[in-house]
Give the backbone structure.
Amino acid sequence: MQAAHVARHCTEPAAMISAIESTEKLLSITWADGHQSQFHTVWLRDNCSCSDCGDHSGGHRFFELGDMPETLANGVTYTKNALEITWQADGHVTTFDPAWLRAHCYSDRERARRQPRPVTWDATLTGQVPQIDYTKAQSDEAEQLKLYDSVKSHGICLVRNVPAHIDATEELASFIGYVRETHYGRIFEIVSTADPAVIANAPVPLRPHTDENFREPPPGIMVFHSIRASEDGGGASVMTDGFKLAEDFKTLYPEAFDLLTQVPIPHRRFIEHVGLRAEAPVIKLDYQGNICEFRLNERTMGPLDLPENLIEPVYDALSKMFSLSYESKYHMHHLLLDGEALVFDNARVLHARTGFNGHRHVRLTHVGRDEFYSRWRQVRSRLNGDINLI
């Protein structure tokens, strides 16, 4: 019963077994590069992917945790290319590729290596925004991967050489995910009008914000595609890293930071044929306490619905956060030229713009973060053999 974790073997020291010690509860592996991994036997049994147990990754799972034997003593043998465990409770055999085990080692060091922290930035990113060439990316997966990696690390990527016509907007969006349709349709046209229904279509400057926090979930990966830049040189995009804001805010106002990670802030959009409301904290933390999402928009906030003792402290925390987000030292500027696009993560990067007097036309659409990062994992796996993503 061979496990089907990976189809490749690795002869690098990091994936070569030097020694093994086994107890009923733990399997300790010393690798040729000196690193030690501790695998719990319950984890090893659960991750058997033989034909009888099925494979987690494809959802074809037959083994259930309720079937886990109470005693998991085992016999272990290994070679350069395989580790075989015979489970003494029932004689079941599990086979692992050492490269797969090393890639999934859950020691603190290896988990930190697999989850690099985002690269935070401020106004000094102006002129230094990660960028790709769209024409090249259409036939070169390495160039495409640069886009995915840039959005993952910096939250943003500039895409050059996109055709400056309307058909190219959905073409670019479909290149990185599936367009999400809303009451605005599949595309929102940002053009100046005499009596705009939304402020985005007024030629006025806008404060930094994340979009549509009144949705559940809000838009994920945003695409700003420039069809026509304003003749007066106005309408420059002003981008802000919410993770950098949150980091500095934590240092400046630790108690207010804690409030904004816990208290839900309501947002709403109630206009003709639309009644949207959602709430979430400004700052979301992951299991390890790292900042993983940031949502902020002063214009769409609804009335706070909180216990009386929290109203004033939360208003104070929000006021401090808005003031920080409006400081120019955090604002990266880029004037989108005809045929350029910005792709950025709306759960991290705030956007704004300067005022303008010309005939500016930018098209906005967005794709799901889940589908965007699904494609990132696929390309990374094909190009780099990142088997820990599988």
